[in-house]
Amino acid sequence: MRKSAIMNETAKEWTRMNVALRNSLDRIAPQQQQSLPHVADEDALKSAMRRMSGGVSVITAGVGDERTGATVTSATALSVDPPTMIVNINRSSSSWPIISRYGHFCVNILSAEQQDVADRFAGKGGLKGVERYDGAEWFTLASGASVLRGALAGIDCEVDEVIERHSHAIILGRVVSIVAGDGHSLVYSNGRYGRFSL
Length: 198
Prior knowledge:
Blueprint (H helix, E strand, L loop, with lengths): L2 H25 L14 H9 L3 E2 L1 E5 L6 E5 L3 E5 L2 E8 L4 H8 L1 E6 L5 H7 L16 E3 L5 E3 L4 E13 L2 E13 L4 E5 L2 E5 L2
Antiparallel strand pairs: 1-11, 2-3, 2-6, 4-5, 5-10, 6-9, 7-8, 9-10, 11-12
């Protein structure tokens, strides 16, 4: 077979494959197709990150009437040796100056039954500061930060290092004590709470 004939057959085969691929893509529902790229701005990043499910925690800090806190999905273990947690807190939030002043925080990992606590610490209903602690039982461990009774876990930390970048403070906490409970995790994805159970 001559070279031009081989090239002609190859081109026909590529055309058949492209038509088959286009037909396959046309059968995919529009919501399953990849959306067009967006400019990498604040709204696009928030929208992208909302698609990732995450465990819900309440970060607590302060003592007495200076207690405050925030609901987060960004708390994670940085290291187990030594035990170290990492949380990201907006520097314009009421929690940041209290964490900075007291040098402590507690990561309270919420159970599926504690959505009301998550809502309060997210500021639902305009609650601020110590008001967010109403309606739940709290105690303290080594650092003095509040631990939620009945949480799946309370990870008590002393601030080890702070990295201030852009809008947030990246806070590394040396774990000084831990309490653990039982239950199913409260999760958050795409603007809604849910639960995870095995």
